[in-house]
Amino acid sequence: MERKFVKIVTSVPGPLSLEWAERRDQAVPRGISNNCRSFVKKASGAIVEDIDGNVHIDFAGAIGTLNVGHAHPRVVRALQEQAGQFIHTCFNVMMYESYIELSERLAALAPFSGEKQVAFFNSGAEAVENAVKIARKHTGRQGVISFTRGFHGRTLMTMTMTSKVKPYKFGFGPFAPEVYKAPYPYTYRRPAGMGEEQYSAFMIEQFEQFLISEVAPETIAAVVMEPIQGEGGFIVPDKAFVQRVREICTQYGIVFVADEIQTGFARTGKYFAIEHFGVEPDLVTISKSMGAGVPISGVIGKKELMDVANPGELGGTYSGSPLGCKAALAVLDIIEEEKLNERATHIGEKLTASLKELASKYPQIGDIRGIGAMCAMEIVKDKETKNPDKEAVGRIVKEAADRGLLLLSAGLFGNVLRFLMPLTITDEQLEEGLQILEESAETVFAGQHAVPLGS
User: Fold this and answer.
1) pTM score
2) Cofactor(s) for this protein (predicted)?
3) Thinking of the domain 49-68+339-446, which architecture would CATH place it in?
4) What is the reported pLDDT for 401?
C-alpha cells in the first residue's frame, strides 16, 4: 500500500539510531527499558521522524502522555512565553498566577460536587503517593487498598500498590506496609459458563468477602482504583462493581481515589473516565496528558480532605512548576476548542470497528475492549483456552515499527496491544496506521514476511 504519511528509508532502527543505541547501552542502565531502539529527531501531532529520516505514525502517545499530540503549537507558544518571563521560583518561595489559574480550572472540571482544592506535583507516582498521604491524614487510618493488575508507579508506596511483579517489583522489597490488593473484574477471563451479570455479582461478593478475610474496612484510609486499568491491559470494570465499591467507601468513611493518570484529559471521551460509571470520587490523581509532555501531576479533591494537611506537609521543589502549569492550561484550552472529548469518541468508534474486523479474520484476537479512544486488543493462542500469546504481541509491535507504526503492549501477561494515539490524529493518519496494524497482524498470524524496505 502506498503511504501518504509514513516514510521508511532505512532499516528500523537505522544506522544513526544504532550508533546512538550503542552509546546508550554504555551510558544508561539496562533497567530503563526502550520500546523502540530508534532516536527521535522531531515530532508533530501524530507524526514522529527519527534521526535516520524514517517517519512514523504514533499509536503510543508516549504512554498516554500526548492526547493533544506532539508539540502542539499552542503548548509550544505557552512554554516559550513562560520561559521568556521566568522558568522557576518554587511555589513555596514565591507564588505565580498560573498555579492558581490551573487549580481553579481543574476544580471546575472535577467529577464530584462540593468545594474542591488542587495540589500539584511532578509525576503520576507522586500524585498517588500524595493522595495516600491526604487520605491517611484525613481518616487517621493507615490501610490502603489497590487492585490486582493495577499500576500506580515505581516509588516504594506506588510499587507496593502495583500488582505486576516483573518487571516492577521483583527484587526491590521489602515493600510498604498496610497495602492490600483486592480482586478487580476481568470480564473476558471470567470463569467458563458464567454470564456477565452473574460474574458482576460474583466480583462484588469477592470484594465484600475481601473486607472480611483480608482487612477490616474500619482500618482503611483509601481505596485507589483506576477506572480503566492501564498497564493492566485496559480492563474495563462493570459499572455495578465500581458503584458498590463507592458505596462501601461511603459506608465506612474510606476515601475513594480515582487514579486518572492514564485515563484522564479526554482519552475516554470525557475529561475523567470515572464519569462513565455514575459515581463521585473523593480524590482524583492526574498526570500524563495533563502537561502534553511537560512533567506535572496533581491531586484534585474535596476541600474537607485537601485542607487537612498542615503547611509544609505537601508539595516539593518543582511541584506544579510554571512551565508545567502553563502547558496544562494550554492543554485544557485545546481540549475545549478542538472538542477532543468528541474526537476521542469518534476515534474509538473507528478504531473499534477496525479491530473487530481484524478479529473476524484471526481467531488469535481474543478480545476487543475499551471506552472512547482508550482501546485494546488481547492476543491469545486460541479462543478456547485463552492462553496468552505474549510472543505474538511482541512480533506485531516489531513488525509495525518496521513499517512505520509505533505501538505499545500491556497486560499482566504482556499479551495486549493498547492504543493511545494522540486525539489530534487526522482520520487519514488513523486509517493509514490501522492499515499498517492489519498488515503487521497478518504477517504474524499468517506467517508472511515484512514488506520490502522503502515500500
Assistant:
1) 0.95
2) pyridoxal 5'-phosphate
3) Alpha-Beta Complex (3.90)
4) 97
Contact 336, 271 (CB under 8 A): no
State phi, psi for 194 to the nearest 5 degrees: -100, 125
Say which residue the cell 493488575 belongs to: 149
CA-closest candidate to residue 325, choices 291, 350, 353: 291
* Predicted local distance difference test score (pLDDT) of residue 453: 39
Which residues of the chain does CATH 3.90.1150.10 include? 49-68+339-446
Listed as ranges, residues in the chain with pLDDT below 50 are 448-455
pLDDT in tens, 138-195: 999 999 999 999 999 999 999 999 998 889 999 999 999 999 999 999 999 999 999 9
**Domain 74-337 belongs to what architecture?**
3-Layer(aba) Sandwich (3.40)
Contacts of 306 (CB under 8 A, 6+ apart): 116, 117, 118, 119, 134, 299
Res 452: pLDDT = 39
pLDDT at position 446 is 86
